Please model this.
Amino acid sequence: MVVGTSDGVMGCCLPRIGAPAAKTDGSDSESSIGEQSRRSKRIDQMLAKEKRLIRKEVKLLLLGAGESGKSTFVKQMKIIHSQRHSLIDDMSDTNAVQEYKDIIYKNIIKGMQEYKDIIYKNIIKGMQVLIDARIKLDIPWGRPDSEIHAQHVFACDNRQTISQHVFTQYVRPIGLLWTDEGIRHAFERRIEFQLSDGVRYLFDNIDRIGGEDYLPTNQDILYSRKATKGVTEYSVTINKIPFRFVDVGGQRSQRQKWFQCFECVTSILFIVSSSEYDQVLLEDRHKNRLRESQNIFDTIVNNRCFQE
Model:
């Protein structure tokens, strides 16, 4: 073999006669092939496991009229069958633990703020409905000063986010109005107008809810309401079986989306509130809510999707 030196002189280097030839080491190649094989096997196992989970998953479509309790049912399932995240307990990296804690704490705070806003709005909106109903039903005030409190509460813009600071301005007026005989009388006649079922509980607990250190309890969340718009999915594991609940808005304007959700559904849960027997619809105050639920159920079971 001819090689070049640093001073430009060409030289020749020949292997010694009788010297053993260099052997090609195939261990690196074999190790690489083995690692690829193991990785491919792990991927196949993961795909097979995912396929089994998909086949095992129970997909439930929740249907029913508006305010029948579909979202409340899902909340109950999540509360009853919730499992604590054990990832942090299994981690040994202190920095990673702190990072995950920060993320979880931020998510908890964000979730609490969202629930607090919903609860605050439920209380203010509920009292505004009762104030308006008292006027329309021609019910007199129980106390003369209630009119001033009513004007203050009624002027609140419930469309904006309600912070804790803003809500504290309405705690005392709403508390006083809730004890007024005129508002109580209007509440007793709530079958004549639309009022959320949970407002009584929220009114009774307004002093606690209006506190500076208030954190929503499970009960507070269950009694609060936010109208479902569109399609929302929630995953819950019950007895090691994955359930996916598909929650669809129940208002008349949302029902055209129902039949788009029938594909790959294991079962349909049709939710009816037993307290609706003497209540009317928000969209039509001449329509009984229980009768509306019956009509919706008839429409669903007679749909051509179930005739195939």
About this structure: The chain has two domains: 56-82+227-306, 91-223. The CA atoms of residues 59 and 266 lie 5 Å apart. DSSP finds eleven helices and six strands in the chain. Strands lie at 2-4, 10-12, 58-63, 231-238, 241-248, 267-270.
